[in-house]
Amino acid sequence: MQSYCLEITDDKDGFLHILKDRISAGNYAERFDCNWFFYDNTSRVVFCFNDSSLYKKFVRILADTLLEIIESAMLIKTVNLNCFYFTEKEKKRIASDAKNIFNGEQQPNSSIDIRKKRKEYIYNRLHEYMGKNDKLILDGFIRFRLKEIIDQIEDSVEKAADDFIIEKEYNEFIKLLRYFVEIQEPKIDEVHVILDSNSNYVLLDSDMKAINNDLLKDLAKEISNNEISGDDLLISSLITIAPNKITIHSDKKNGNKEVLNTIKNVFYGKVDIDDNEGNNYLCSLTEKKK
User: Fold this and answer.
1) Structure letter (DSSP) for residue 50
2) Which residues are CB-contacts of 53 (< 8 A; sequence separation ≥ 6)?
3) What's the order of all strands across the beta sheet hosting 2-9?
4) 3-state secondary structure string across 152-185
5) Residue 143 DSSP class
6) Are 137 and 7 in contact (CB under 8 A)?
């Protein structure tokens, strides 16, 4: 009969509780011959196996439990340690985003494969270590034998925090632009934006005539000297005009989603999207100029 000892210090994450539930759920408690010992801040479990298949099953259950702890409790610990300057609400959002990044849920159809590979990685590391040792100190095993996965947790938290900061700054910027629009008197009530797949655009009034505004000419000259993109020029032009209604005629398939979303956010409730017409309008305008 083979025996094995699992030891964990200060089990605040509830690892042994989860492990015990998994063992009980599979009706393995008696077959593993488990003996649980609890001290002041150290817990120890001795398992005995009378055949190799039970040992492999135990290692599999142990690997599943480890992954669950790593992607939940340890991820939250990392957020609390590295993102202490955020509010509790913000840390919960970062932890949720980091878990999605860690599990590859931002990439369609990849999360199942990623978790499966991680389980197999942990299982192999456990099997390798336990084949040479009869005692596993869990804290040290995670720190040194699963360092690759812990590094992935830290990278996921860092990316989630960076993405959150970028999103927060973007939302504050949108609020500022929206304020500029709200305090201005509309120079033209309705504007049509003809936008093609290459982010070329034309501004037309309600009669579908090109807008030739002195302010826009000055703005274009100033921006061209600063090498600002056409998207920025479009948004700046619309803010300068501050219309009550904007209709964007764009190619749905190839349109710049980022600039469209920015316009919709700045001019909230004032924007309509007319798909698949941007290229047609620009082509017709080009023909007229010929």
Assistant:
1) S
2) none
3) 35-38, 42-49, 2-9, 135-137
4) HHHHHHHHHHHHHHHHHHHHHHHHHHHHHHHCCC
5) I
6) yes
Q: Are strands 201-204 and 271-275 parallel, antiparallel or unpaired?
A: unpaired
Alpha helices per DSSP H over 26-130: 29-32, 52-69, 75-82, 88-102, 111-130
pLDDT in tens, the chain (290 residues): 678 888 898 887 888 888 888 888 877 766 777 787 777 788 888 888 777 888 888 899 999 999 999 989 999 999 999 999 999 999 999 999 999 999 987 666 666 788 889 999 999 999 999 989 989 999 899 999 999 999 999 999 999 999 999 999 999 999 999 999 999 899 899 999 988 766 678 889 998 888 876 656 665 565 555 556 678 888 888 998 999 999 998 766 655 788 889 999 999 999 998 875 545 555 555 455 44
- 244 touches 181 (CB < 8 A): no
User: How would you classify the pairing of strands 2-9 and 35-38?
Assistant: unpaired
The secondary element (H helix, E strand) that includes residue 194 is strand 190-195
- Position 230, amino acid: G
Give just the sign of the alpha carbon dihedral 71, 76, 81, 86: positive
User: Residues 102, 103, 108, CA angle at the centre, nearest 5°?
Assistant: 125
Identify any residues that bridge with 137 across adjacent strands, giving them in sequence order: 7
Q: From CA 61, how far away is CA 245, in angstroms rounded?
A: 60
Which residues are bridge partners to 245 per DSSP?
A: 190
Q: Give the whole-angstrom CA distance, residue 241 versus residue 215.
A: 9
Cα dihedral value 196, 197, 201, 202, nearest 10: 0
